[in-house]
């Protein structure tokens, strides 16, 4: 199947007389005829449903669709993108372990790693995604368990060199985890470039309508845990908390990582999505392939308009030929990047704030990457926990305005920007 067809049909095939749409199985629990039947499920001897915290059919249909879109072997949904990011790393790195991460990742991921996971005993080394080979090499330690990056960094819009980081990770016997939220599998499939695990905040383009917060983790099934058994004892030695199961043996290379997340991390920490939310996420996925090209087309027109405007100091959009990342974006995302454009208004922080007050079509919102055009000043919102040094390392200058271009008629979006810029005094 092509991706467009997967958006509509993957993950759920109704049988004769069954509902055409995925059913919403809004039930916490599932009934069995005998205790033995249920016991087999608890022993992981048979697959089936018994409690929604561990698995639910609606959630599974949608996870299977995202898995197909990314070209993975197994996937699980989480209640937020943050939960997906956390589980993707915590599933293979615990106290005493170390992870190499790109310094330009989403602010929430940065805090999770640098503050909360650090407190849990996991150390992170943040590297500039455009660092030299020597610097990248020097970031690895004997206890490094993973490398983490973001296809298109939110909000710095830096395009991650997936192939390069995958090669470095593999040379050190560890997987590459890529947050593919901004590109979506419509524009980029990181697994095709060597990524081993892909994460999503489905809250963004996948849902696409400001309706539900959610996340997803997809395993490529390509990383050979057993070949690096000493590094990943959680997957390659018995889990005493689950009848001594060895995930890599029981579920094989394609199923071990996701089954461990479900059996262990979901069991103990519990961030599952509500089936109703998964149903709504699925509605978003059914039009993802139609919306993404429009987001990209509108964003490119907006970026070109801004670039030509004399009150604009700079524009950053990887689809612009003037972008430092234009060639890299063409390689990884030949059909387009995303709908997010960042820029600076001449006059810095104060001018940016004055300009934003005049916007009417573009609404001020923390949100990004959905059907509605919205705008944000990260230094005073999403990234306000960061000091100036951290802001610069994250690729966020104090004057940066992040414009998430929606799928309205682009003439209205540009007219709105033009009107607001006319009113700003520099
Ligand atoms: C929003 C976002 C997240 C966090 O997702 P939530 O659904 O808000 O928890 C992670 N990564 C990226 C790139 C994001 O944009």
UniProtKB/TrEMBL annotation:
Cofactor(s) the protein needs: pyridoxal 5'-phosphate
Chain positions found as N6-(pyridoxal phosphate)lysine: 204
InterPro entries xref list: Cys/Met-Metab_PyrdxlP-dep_enz (IPR000277), OAc-hSer/O-AcSer_sulfhydrylase (IPR006235), PyrdxlP-dep_Trfase (IPR015424), PyrdxlP-dep_Trfase_major (IPR015421), PyrdxlP-dep_Trfase_small (IPR015422)
Any Gene Ontology CC annotation: cytoplasm
Stored SUPFAM superfamilies: PLP-dependent transferases (SSF53383)
Membership in a protein family: Belongs to the trans-sulfuration enzymes family.
Protein name per UniProt: O-acetylhomoserine (Thiol)-lyase
Species for this entry: Coprococcus eutactus
């Amino acid at each position: 199947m092509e991706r467009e067809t997967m958006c509509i049909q993957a993950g759920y095939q109704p049988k004769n007389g069954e509902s055409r749409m995925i059913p919403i199985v809004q039930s916490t629990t599932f009934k069995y005829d005998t205790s033995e039947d249920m016991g087999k499920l608890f022993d992981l001897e048979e697959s089936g449903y018994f409690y929604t915290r561990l698995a639910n059919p609606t959630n599974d249909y949608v996870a299977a669709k995202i898995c197909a879109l990314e070209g993975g072997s197994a996937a699980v949904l989480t209640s937020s993108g943050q939960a997906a990011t956390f589980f993707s790393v915590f599933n293979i790195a615990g106290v005493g372990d170390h992870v190499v991460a790109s310094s330009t990742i989403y602010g929430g991921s940065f805090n999770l790693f640098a503050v909360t996971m650090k407190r849990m005993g996991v150390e992170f080394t943040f590297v500039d995604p455009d660092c030299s080979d020597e610097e990248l090499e020097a970031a690895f330690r004997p206890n490094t368990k993973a490398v983490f990056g973001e296809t298109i960094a939110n909000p710095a819009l830096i395009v991650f060199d997936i192939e390069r980081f995958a090669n470095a990770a593999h040379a050190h016997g560890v997987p590459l985890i890529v947050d593919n939220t901004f590109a979506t599998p419509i524009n980029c499939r990181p697994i095709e470039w060597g990524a081993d695990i892909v994460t999503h905040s489905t809250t963004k383009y996948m849902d696409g309508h400001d309706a539900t917060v959610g996340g997803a983790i997809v395993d490529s099934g390509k990383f050979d845990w057993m070949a690096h058994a000493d590094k990943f004892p959680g997957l390659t030695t018995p889990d005493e908390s689950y009848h001594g199961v060895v995930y890599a043996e029981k579920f094989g290379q394609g199923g071990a990582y996701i089954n461990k997340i479900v059996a262990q991390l979901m069991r103990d920490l519990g961030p599952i999505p509500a089936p109703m939310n998964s149903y709504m996420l699925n509605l978003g996925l059914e039009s993802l392939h139609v919306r993404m090209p429009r987001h990209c087309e509108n964003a490119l027109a907006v970026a070109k308009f801004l670039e030509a405007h004399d009150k604009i100091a700079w524009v950053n959009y990887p689809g612009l030929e003037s972008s430092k990342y234009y060639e890299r974006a063409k390689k990884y995302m030949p059909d387009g990047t995303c709908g997010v454009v960042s820029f600076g208004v001449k006059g810095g922080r104060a001018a940016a704030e004055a300009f934003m007050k005049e916007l009417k079509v573009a609404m001020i919102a923390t949100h990004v990457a959905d059907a509605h055009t919205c705008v944000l000043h990260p230094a005073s919102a999403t990234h306000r926990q960061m000091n100036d040094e951290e802001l610069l390392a994250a690729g966020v200058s104090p004057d940066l305005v992040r414009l998430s271009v929606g799928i309205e008629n682009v003439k209205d979006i540009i007219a709105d920007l033009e009107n607001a810029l006319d009113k700003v005094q520099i």
